Amino acid sequence: MFNFLLAAAEKAAPAAQAAGQAAGQAGQQTQTNPMGMLILMTGAFILMFYLMSRSNKKQQQKREEMLDSIVKGTEVMLASGIYGKVSAVQDKILTVEIADRVFVKVNRAGIHDVIVPEEQKTAEGEKKEEKSDK
């Protein structure tokens, strides 16, 4: 019986070896091209960078519009969190009244936000609703 198993193993060995070589060749054919993967990853990186810079550009433009809209009497919040009312506007320097007869000179970049009165917010909301209905 042992001789029979040995003979069967000798006959099966060349067939198994041939099958292993065929599988190895098939494996080589299905490998991905590393250059193609590099190109794909580079394209994804460029797309992601473009979308991020576009978003940043929109935010920066919105902030510049906000800072340009500041006039005398505008209520603002400074970057330090102090609220006040603009009493004088020069080129890049704003004079902000933070309490009764307490004035602070602030660089325009030090303004964090413009405080919009509630009645103006509701009026703007109604205008947006009218535009969306059209």
What does this structure look like?
The chain is α+β, with helices and mostly antiparallel strands and 134 residues long. The chain has two domains: 35-68; 71-133, SH3 type barrels (Roll). It has helices at residues 2-29, 34-68, 118-133; strands spanning 75-78, 83-89, 93-99, 102-107, 111-114. Strands 4-3-2-1-5 form a five-stranded antiparallel beta sheet, with no helix packed on it. Strand 3 and strand 4 form a beta hairpin. The protein is elongated and about 110 Å long.
Anisotropy-based shape: elongated
The low-pLDDT segments are none
Mean pLDDT: 78
Helix-strand makeup class:
alpha+beta
Provide the descriptors you would attach to this structure in a database record.
134 residues; 5 strands; 2 domains; 21% strand; alpha+beta; SH3 type barrels; elongated; 59% helix; five-stranded antiparallel beta sheet; 3 helices
Describe this structure in a few short sentences.
The protein has helices at residues 2-29, 34-68, 118-133, and strands spanning 75-78, 83-89, 93-99, 102-107, 111-114. It has two domains: 35-68; 71-133, SH3 type barrels (Roll). The chain has three helices and five strands.
